[in-house]
Amino acid sequence: MKTIVHLLRHGEVHNPEGVLYGRLPGYHLSDDGRLMAKSAAKWFDGRDITVLVSSPMERAQETSEPIAETLGLPVGTDERLIEAANHFEGHTFGVGDGSLRRPEHWPFLWNPFRPSWGEPYEEIAQRMLAAMADARDAARGHEAVCVSHQLPIWVTRRRVEGRRMWHHPGRRQCALASVTSFTYDDDRIVKVDYAEPAGDLSRRPSVPGA
């Protein structure tokens, strides 16, 4: 039986200070982010979507709203779709005036393979795959949408494709409001596809892991 689970990254967030907001509350979609969410809703319109689930973060919930309205579906919430935990949450990240110039943060940078500054990549992928399996079971023979975040989506794709988990954050193929789709043959993932419904709106720099 063929089932498709789509992982949708949320739209752009209003974040003029450039903070790595992670799991912090109070970060909402920008005006462009709301347009991105509407573009995603149009992309899903006409598809056989029967299940819609979102991360509990405001930006993900807000991205799901136009999809729910377009498809006439309720929005479920799954904690496993949440953003990755990160030591640098609430800080600006980088050299210059960012957190990397402060010695108190250096002990968290010793292992990029795990990574040492946050939730292990493998743990992220496993919780995401478990959430996807539940969405797949709820939508058997149809399609499901799970609204999540860049890093969880990207490491899950890398796990499924058999690639190493550590990577360069700037090389993630997971633009704002992008869709990474996993096709299941019964319980086995047999295909991964990628699309950018928001087009040019999503092609701009953003905070890694947002």
TrEMBL record:
<dbReference type="Pfam" id="PF00300">
    <property type="entry name" value="His_Phos_1"/>
</dbReference>
<dbReference type="InterPro" id="IPR050275">
    <property type="entry name" value="PGM_Phosphatase"/>
</dbReference>
<dbReference type="InterPro" id="IPR013078">
    <property type="entry name" value="His_Pase_superF_clade-1"/>
</dbReference>
<dbReference type="InterPro" id="IPR029033">
    <property type="entry name" value="His_PPase_superfam"/>
</dbReference>
<protein>
    <submittedName>
        <fullName>Histidine phosphatase family protein</fullName>
    </submittedName>
</protein>
